[in-house]
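Task card 7
Instruction: Convert sequence to structure tokens.
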Amino acid sequence: MTQTEMLTLIGDPKQVQKELTEFRKAADVFSSSKAKLIAHYPKQWVAVKGKTVVANARTLPALIKELKQKGVPKETVMVRYIEKNLRTLIL
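Output:
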């Protein structure tokens, strides 16, 4: 695949970099603010864009509806269910 073909597939490099930065910030919120999220949004679905919680709801369909009402494209957020208890996986 040529460089031109690759750029055509991924789009504008500056836009891709912006989206990756937003994704990284959202991932940081979920990993570094776990206790805060559990305190504020227990047993809820939470959508984060950048460093901001943009929506929360008890069910995933309700969260998607709230995102739509707020005009936030679901493709631009990171979504996670916030559980009160941490799960331990034994592999």
